[in-house]
Amino acid sequence: MQQAGRLRLRPWLEEQIQSGRYPGVSWLDQSARIFQIPWIHAARHGWSIDRDATLFRSWAMHTGRYRPGKDKPDPKTWKANFRCALNSLPDICELQEHSKKRGSNAYRVYRMLASTQAHRRRRDPPQKAESPAEDTIGNMQTHGETLVVKVCCCSVMIQDGASVA
């Protein structure tokens, strides 16, 4: 059961992105609601709980899953809980082709959908690929100089390296 006054993940996350408190957590294209979150693996050389797990710790504290001074710090669980909460939202989807999964500067790119798109995402059955070249994640089409990438629920147009809403 949700505590009174506690923000749900999407509005909480929007506040965190706007705040600038977390290095690397930022809008890539605010008008298209595309943002990135650093996603560095804890086994990487130079990983720091105070730098690389702050957003995940803040979410754990916000939800009551972590109480500083009472609970043992557990960044692996914080990150897993945050990832699962984010993946469960019908109005946020990862743009996997824009994410960088490995390396010391790994990050994930997500898009916040309008509520009408989110409802459509939940109800629409998965579409079959029209050709063997299309993978199960998404497909790409070109329209002149514009590349349209459809990933899970999101369509993003890339024009000259920038997304177009």
Name the CATH superfamily assignment of the domain at 9-122. Answer: Winged helix-like DNA-binding domain superfamily/Winged helix DNA-binding domain
Please outline the major beta sheet: 4 strands, antiparallel
Order of strands, main sheet, comes to 1-2-4-3
Category by helix and strand content: alpha+beta
Total number of beta strands: 8
Provide the succession of SSEs: HEEHHHEEHEEEE
Tally of individual helices: 5
Helicity range? 25-40%
Cα distance spanning the termini? 36 Å
CATH topology of the domain at 9-122: Arc Repressor Mutant, subunit A
pLDDT averaged over residues: 81
What is the strand content? 15-25%
What do these coordinates show?
Keywords: Activator, DNA-binding, Isopeptide bond, Nucleus, Transcription, Transcription regulation, Ubl conjugation. The chain has 165 residues and is an alpha+beta fold. The protein has a domain at 9-122: Winged helix-like DNA-binding domain superfamily/Winged helix DNA-binding domain (Arc Repressor Mutant, subunit A, Orthogonal Bundle). The protein has helices spanning 9-19, 49-52, 54-63, 75-88, 115-123; strands at residues 26-29, 34-38, 92-94, 107-112, 138-143, 146-151, 154-159, 162-164. The strands form two sheets. Strands 1-2-4-3 form a four-stranded antiparallel beta sheet, with helices on one face. Strands 5-6-7-8 form a four-stranded antiparallel beta sheet, with no helix packed on it. The radius of gyration is 17 Å and the shape is globular. Mean pLDDT is 81; it is low at 126-140.
